[in-house]
Amino acid sequence: MKPHFLVIGAAKCATTTIRTLLGRHPGIFMVPTESQFFNDDSVFARGCGWYDSLFAAAGSAQCRGEGCNAYTMKEAFPHAFERLTAYAPQLKLIYAVRDPFERIESFWMELRSQHPDYVHYDFNKAVDVNHDWLTDPSNYLSQLEPYRRFYGDESIHVVFYEDFRADPGLVIRGCFRFLGVDPDIDVGASTERLNGYESKFIAAPILSQLRSIPFYRRAIDRLPFGPRDLIARTLLYRKIRQRPGWHPDTRACVAEHLRDDLHKFLAQQGKPPDFWNLDGVLDVVNDAVVEEA
User: Distance between CA atoms of 227 and 225, rounded to whole angstroms?
Assistant: First the structure.
């Protein structure tokens, strides 16, 4: 069995909640976790037969779906698109987007919580050096364009995080219509599963500094993962008390990099150019630079 649709990202745009709600529909079978099949070389090496087996329990479900945010992180995972399209030349795609600055903040916190080695421990430094994980996936126009060319706009449904926060039921019904299942099924759509940063713990900077010492890394990596993770999370993680702060120069650089493309993206999706206040961001940054000078 193959999927009929995929939720392809972007990370921290309510994709986990959306996948959960889609899976509650009696006509939809949803793989409960991200397989990472098309982006992770070691998982892809298991073969298409392994991936097909993820849908074996679908039974007579009208639609079968899976989802992974890494499928729209082409700079970090350059083979995902070609692998996916070769496997499934006909497919429906759901793509969620969000204010790019909020998304970058949330994804940095998520990575520092789950995979602290993936991004720099200093937020503004991470935005600069880990742009393939943080900034590039926020260029929704660029990430979606290859899929638009291959599958066509009629096969792609874009969901805005802000719309989902305002009316989750309306957004989920729109997804059901797109997938061709009964849109009037009540799946208890709400935003209750949205991850708030207040409940997260992230790795303290000292953990990354210690991991940069070869002797420490060799010694700690000899421990089984369970005890190693428990020690790290007990001694070297701290609770997030506020969202990371932007340095004006960093924010201005990201705004300048993303602004024109995201204006085009918003126009494609029928949203006003000030939906994410991309121009206002630059105005605020420029004012701050003048005041500092």
Answer: 6
Contact at 8 Å (CB) between 6 and 67?
yes
Give yes or no for a cis peptide into 10 (omega within 30° of 0).
Answer: yes
Which residue ranges of the chain lie beneath pLDDT 70?
193-212, 215-221, 223-241, 280-293
Give CA separation, 213 vs 207, 210, 217, 220, 224, in Å. Answer: 10, 5, 6, 11, 19
CA-based nearest residue to 169, from 271, 17, 28, 10: 17
pLDDT digits (tens, 9 = 90+) for 1-23: 899 999 999 999 999 999 999 99
Q: Domain-by-domain residue ranges, the chain?
A: 5-179, 201-239
Helix (H, G, I), strand (E, B) or coil at 131: coil
Write the pLDDT tens digit of every residue in 218-264.
Answer: 665 676 656 655 555 555 556 666 789 999 999 999 999 999 999 99
2 is written with which tokens? 């193959």
CA distance 268 to 278: 16
Measured CA to CA, the distance from residue 93 to residue 22 in angstroms comes to: 13
pTM: 0.83
**What values do phi and psi take at 206, rounded to 5?**
-60, -30
Which amino acid is residue 178, in one-letter code?
F
Q: What is the Cα–Cα distance from 279 to 256, expressed in whole angstroms?
A: 9
Q: How far apart are CA 32 and CA 47, in angstroms?
A: 19
Q: Is domain 5-179 annotated with CATH 3.40.50.300? A: yes
